[in-house]
Amino acid sequence: MARAPAFAHNDLVRTGLAVAALLPALALADDATPAAPIEARRVPVEDPGGHALDRFSAALRRVAAGEERAIARVAVLGDSHIAADLFTGALRRRLQARLGDAGHGFVLLGSAWPLYRHLDVEHGATASFATRRLRPRDHEPFRFGLGGGVSTATQGAVAWVGTAARGPVGRRVSRFEVFYETEPGGGALELRLDGQRVATLETSSPSHQAAYRVVEAPDGRHRLEIESMGPGPTAVYGAVLERSGPGVVVDSLGVPALAALHLSSSDPTLLAEHLCRRAHDLVVFAFGTNDVRWEAMDLSTYRASLARLLTRIRTGAPRASCLVLGPIDRRYRSTDGVWNASLDEVIERQRGAAVDAGCAFWDQRAAMGGPGSMARWMVPRPRFTLRDGVHLSGRGYDVLAGALASELLAPIDSP
What we know:
CATH architecture of the largest domain: 3-Layer(aba) Sandwich
Largest sheet: 6 strands, antiparallel
Helix content: 25-40%
Strand content: 25-35%
Number of strands: 16
Order of helices and strands: HHEHHEEEEEEEEEEEEHEHEHEHHH
CATH topology of the largest domain: Rossmann fold
Structural class: alpha+beta
Oligomer: single chain
CATH superfamily of the largest domain: SGNH hydrolase
Number of helices: 10
């Protein structure tokens, strides 16, 4: 089986600062000492029923065959391991290098958290384009949307998104799509493509409704600006960058500090609508690190609760394949109390919930080398991990992403 191509780690390591910003006491520690070889183990995707990944495999085959406008779309929902786009960015690069760059996918607008940054895309906003994100303390469903956040803006606030100036992918786009909200008293949004106004969106309506606007462009380098024109406030969920294909798109939808069941605080109707709009071929769930320390964790009900959540979220993408990623290994000590569940117990129940919900399962900790592997990954310099023993560096996430990419590509690489 052919393995997905490797990449230089420079951009991944630089973007590791986004993870460090989420964990202020930590830093990526690199030095000039050559790295000892760290490789992921070959761990096949577990699919007891044999059909959990059928839709995605079929999409990959269409893309590999060069079918016109064929796109394989992937959504990855997760915690801080996904939030900085290090793991998903590496996965995107590898899949697109193998099958074609069909666009970056979904990006939040505004400062969702300190130094929110995706690989291979340019995006940003003025300070008055503020983003509220899903947090563990949220207990009532809120209209957070696809990326786990919503940006609100008053008159004069501006956000932008566009192609990357350099890098292996992300340097061309032919289609933007803005996900926004209409609401009572909503103001207007002006869209500008490469500095030229292309649309004005009136967001006032009798009730809260999801809305969308597509902006087409010749395939190439482009920048889309979204400005809140007033007089009322405006709400924007994010923007999508795509091309006509054939190729792959990976939507990185991670939010820091979440346990899996925190997704219950995201409005289920809106999330389902956004997932339906994106028409993903594979939906990936990557949680577990925070579940271990979640104060409300009840191991007796965790498997059933997670299976119900997986099933509910999949209503937005009923035909998509589904994959659960078990959590990576972590250092086995707590600085602020006793953990409520061991990693072994969380992985076991996630594996069971995947079966119950008709999803496949991939064991990231096994790919790292099993229990205690985090300690081994912390030894080499430059580092493959952060100093907290919980998160990987860009270099480490690249290794894991390469292992997963190879498993996902197996259906088209095997005879």
